[in-house]
Each structure stands twice: as C-alpha cells, then as structure tokens.
Amino acid sequence: MQLQLTEDQRLLRDSLDRFLADRYGFEQRRAHQRQAAGYNREIWSAFAELGLLGLLLPAEQDGFGGSFVDAMVVMESFGRALVVEPYLPSLLLAGRCISLAGDAAQRARLLPGLIAGELVLAFAHAEPQARYDLADVETTARRQANGWVLDGRKSLVQAGASADWLVVSARTAGATRDANGISLFLVPRGAPGLVLRDYATHDGLHAADLRLDGLRLPADALLGAPAEALPLIERLVDGAIAGLVAELVGIMSALQALTLDHIRTRVQFGRPIGSNQVLQHRVVDMTMAIEQARSMAILAAIEADAPDPRRRRLAISTAKTVAGQAATQVARDAVQLHGGMGITLDHPVGHYFKRVAAIEASLGNGAHHLGLVAAGGGLANALP
Amino acid sequence: MDLQLSPEEQAFRDELRRFFDSAVPPAIRAKVRREERTTKEELVAWQRILHARGWAVPHWPVEWGGTGWNAVQRYLFREELFAAGAPEPQIFNVNMLGPLLLAYGTPAQKQRFLPRAARLDDWWCQGFSEPGAGSDLAALKTSARREGDVFVVHGQKVWTSTARHADWIFLLVRTGQFAKKQEGISLLLADMRTPGITVRPIETIDGANEVNEVFFDDVRVPAENLVGEEHQGWSCAKYLLGHERVGIANVGLTKNRIRRIRELAARVRIGQGTLLDDRGFAERLALLEMELLALEITQLRAVTAHAGHESVPNATVLKITGSALQQRAAELLLEAGGPLAIPLQPAEPEEEIATPGWARMITPTYCYSRAATIYGGTNEVLRNVMARSALGL
To answer: Which helix H or strand E contains A336, and what residues bound it?
Structure first.
C-alpha cells in the first residue's frame, strides 16, 4: 500500500506550479483565452517542453511513459490555475486513443507532433441526442471504394475548431444505441464535407459542433478494428474522468485558499468576517470535502486503467460522484463567503464556480454515475 | 500509488483473518453484528482470548505486551476485527489508561496497573466531564485537597461510560487555583471501591444505561496514585486526546452497519422485489458506500504517511467525516426497518411479539448514533479547533 506522491511526482507538480504562477495569473489567463483558438499555442508548446504532452504515451512510441497518478498531478495543477488549453481532449482522449488503437503509420503521423506541442487533437464522439450514453451514435460511416464516407453530427467537441486532427466516431454497423458497430476515424482539419461551428462554453473553454456531410476519408483513416470501438471509448472516457476529478481537487484547493484570504481581510462591523464562527465552519468543511475529493482522485488514478472494466467503471463512477458533490459544495460556499464579489466576473471565484458546474455536467454527472452504481448493486465491498 | 496490500501485508491480513474466524465466540459475533451491547463478562472473555494470542494491546510497547506492528498493521488489525464481528477492545484500558501511564506513569504505577489493564483484570473508566465542564473541560471543579499522603477528592463526574463495571477510574481534579484554568489540574487514579464514591446510572435514548454520574464525597486517594506532576494534569489530558487516532474514523463500524442494512433490506418485500430494488433507497445506500470508500482511502493516506509527507489528512477530518457517515448509516438503517423499528422489544423472550427479534436494535442504533458527533469533542468544537489551528482563523 503506497498512497504518497513520489519524489519525481512532487518535482513535476512543483515545476508545473511555478510555471503556472509565472505564466497563468488571472489576467494572463484572460489574455490566453482571447487568442483566436480560445487558448494560447505558446503555452501549449511550453507544456511540451515541460514534458506534459508525452505523458501516458509509452516510451516505444516516443512518449515519456507515466501513469495516471502523474496525470493526476498535472490535472490538479491545471485545476488550480484554471488552464484552458485542450490537454484533456488532446492527450487523455485523442492522443491516448491513437496510442492504443492506431497502427504504426497512424502513430508516426500524429504522436510525435502531439508530444512536441505542434499538434492539437480533438475527440469527436458525443452527439446532441446522446446525453451520457456512450453507445448512442447516429453518425454513420459507409465503406466505399478506397475508403469511407461519413454522415452525421457531433457536438461539444472541445477544441474541435482549432484541432489539427480529430478522432471521430461513427457507426459502421448496428442500430443507434447498439454496443457493437461503432468505429473510429482520423479526420484532418479542413477535410471536405466537414463543417465546424465553434462556440464558447460557460466555463471559458471552446467547443465545436461538427456536421459531417458526405465526408470522404481514405481507407487508412480507420483507427483500430471496425465496429469494436465502444470498449476503447469507455476506457478513454474513464481516463478523462480521472483527469477531471483531479482537476476538481485543484479547483477546490484554490477556492479554499481564495476564501480564506477573503474572510481574513474583509472587514465588516469593525472586524474581519472570518471571526464569525458560522463562516469559519464553512471553510473547515471545505477541508473535509477536499480530503474526500483527493482520495477520489487517487482512487480514479489508480483504477483508471484497471484490466477489469467493471472494476474500473465502479471506481470511476464513485470518484466522479463523490468528488463532484464535494466540489459543488466547496464552490457554492466559496461564492457565498465572497458575498457580492462571488458573483462578478472580475473575481476568480466565479470562474472556478463555473468550471465546477461544467465538470459536473461533463461525461456523466453525479446523478448519472450514482444511478449506474446503484443499479449494479452498489459497491458492496467490490473496491478497493 | 497503490491501494493493494503488499504480499507481506496480505499475509499479515490472512493471519489476522484466520485467527478472528476461529477465535471470536459465535454468540459474541452475533451480538456485535447486530450492534447489541456486549456484557462485561463477554468483553473480558474476548480480551483474554486476544491476550493469549499476544494481541491484547497491539500499539503498546513490546515490553508491556505490545506487538511492534507498524501503522498499516495496526490499521489492518482494527479493520479485520470489525469485519469478523469481534468487539472493540475496552478503549479506556487499551487506548487511554495504557498510553497515559506509558507516557506519564511512575515505574511502580506501570508495574502495578499495566499488566492487569491489558488482561482486563481491572476494568477502568474515565472521569473527565463534569456537569459544568463538557467541551470546556478545563472548567472542571471536582477538587482534590492534599492531606499528607492522600488527596481528598470532592465533586462530581458525568457521562462516565461503564462506571458501574469499573474497578478503577482515572480522573481529572482541581488541585489548585491559578490564573489560567488549565493550570492546577491533576490526574489521579482511584479505586472505585473507595468509600465515598457513588455511581448513578443515566438512562440514554437508546434504552441503555452505560453512562453514569459518579459522585465523590471526600474520597481519600493515596498520593502515590497521582499521575505526572501535581497541577500538570492538563498536559496528560491533551496528550490522551491526541493519541492513537488510527481508528478514529470508525470505518469498520460503519461498514458493519451497512452490511446490516443490506441484509435487512433484502428481507423487506416491496412489490415484486425487495427494498434493494427501490431506486431511491439503492442510490442513498450506494452514495453512502461511495463516501465511506473515500473516507477509507483518506484514512489510509493518514496511516501510510511518513513524517515529512505533505497533505496528510488530520485526525479531526477523520472524526468529523467518520461520525457523519456513521449517522447516515444509522438513518438508512431506520429507513430500511420501516415499521419494524417501532416496537420496543419485550425483555422476556416468551412474550414474543410479531416484529422479528433481529429488528430490535434498529432504533437503539439510530438513537445512540447521535452520540458520535458529541463524544470526543463535539463536531462543532472540533471545527473551532480546526479553524484556529489548521486554517489560522
């Protein structure tokens, strides 16, 4: 049993936190967001220099190896700084997808560019009607002479409009919600028949809706075995959820620090408002919530790539539910304790609040994951 | 990071399991599983079994009967003990008197009291709280006046658990008046048979009378029973309250309670299925299990931390979260019981009523669970302490 960060992991965190303190203050972040893509490609390159973009990719694919615990460290730091660069879709979803399912040529075409910070990747799986059902894919891919033709719609594709390449799921067999029949394809930006509609999301990120209108792809665009992609998609999404849970921990610790600072310095009725017991207890309760969420991030990181999918899903659903609940509590109380400042965009606390809401709604909210676990008979000591 | 036990830890756990499987008397196991109160005789019998195995007081030094186990092993011992339906060792002897004497006792006191405490030859109770000194323990008034080689103790203690069974009491008394109320407190050991001691049971809302008032009417305590320095008893008390927090989250107890809820809910028929098929109930239960798992990992993070590690969850976090989950489990138990929770079971078995016997502890468990956020420092006082010490407010 070993539940502490290694020396290397602490160094990774400390150097990343130093970088973010230097380059990712609240006003600097606004400047990053104002760039055309909605984030800063220079920061993206700097992430590559820090070795972050080769994380989770094996050494034989020129990655830096690394575990989900390393990814947890990175995502927690990103959470503290509210990083908007598309690390999660590029690396944890699309990059890992290519690494796990791609053939040698596909990996050679894309992974070195990702690792070097030259490419941004996106993962286009969700569809407007699907909510949280990962098997709900209406987009179709028909085999044609020398290739494929894709038709359909994708939605909420983070960094979809700025990505150099997209991993797109489409049905090559079966009905809309069948587990079998889903395939994955590599699509370059600007492919004829691909129409992108970029929009901002409430948490300050960018996403795109995709229209695939007779999108023609060569035969070698197929990523992995045809019709069998759902287990891989579930595995990737579970890894991404592990990342989101770690991000929540970073956000929560930043919110508590902001709140502490505020109630120590804000004077009303002639004394700091932090001298009021009712406010003190709210901030103490943030500590309980953070510790529980941190334990969930650890569980998610440890189990994110467990060989038994049922065990993995139980752990991930547990982590998403408990950490989401804890973060919602902390975000709500942080806004409350900031008073009027908490609901302005001039103060960081509201930005964290919105990111928590978006994470809670992403990849299955607490109600969804709790329902899954309960319907499966609860945990009943199946974990750890 | 790794949540799996190492091969050595696994072997250790298997050894614990083998022992508990065969060593826990079935009648005691059944009672513990239902959260019925064990009798003094049962607890003494169990402590003797542990003592014979060398596991009566695992965290004491080896020379006083301890095991030399590390924190993970002590943690596993406690978890396996609960999982096997074994009673928790008598905490006043094992977790309080022992550490107290080991830290502050004279060689003669250790020799006289520790071996008997480890075997439960003497049953100890704790005289700390008073009617006017609860969370504000240092406001205690029970006085001890020095007369030659005795202290004459006068006053009253309250909430003294198991005082009726006790042979001895360790108690805080006021030996002097100083500017700070924490000064002038001393810690004494008193034989409960000393003339002038009266015990009056208090009936609690769970129908038990385990807690008591203890009255001291000019009770003469030999001065050799002073622990530590005269007037310095407060530091002993503080030391005790900060000692051995491995079990403070009571994860094992809550797990046991959840197991009962599952068993009970599986017997409750709802429509074509059971209560476990009810979506709302199943979700409340699953959420409790999830949060308990989070707490278990939080606790393991504390257990496996070494000095110098950062972000170690502190004992107060474990106590506050743990007690809240214990209570949630008790509330869910009551919900599962439904109308079965209402009757007070008759004491005599021949007066059997329609409600099954296994339901009899539902409401007492629910009622007594409220104490979890009160004893050992109310959760509100603990939050005050955390605000001051951990957050600097």
So the answer is: helix A309-337
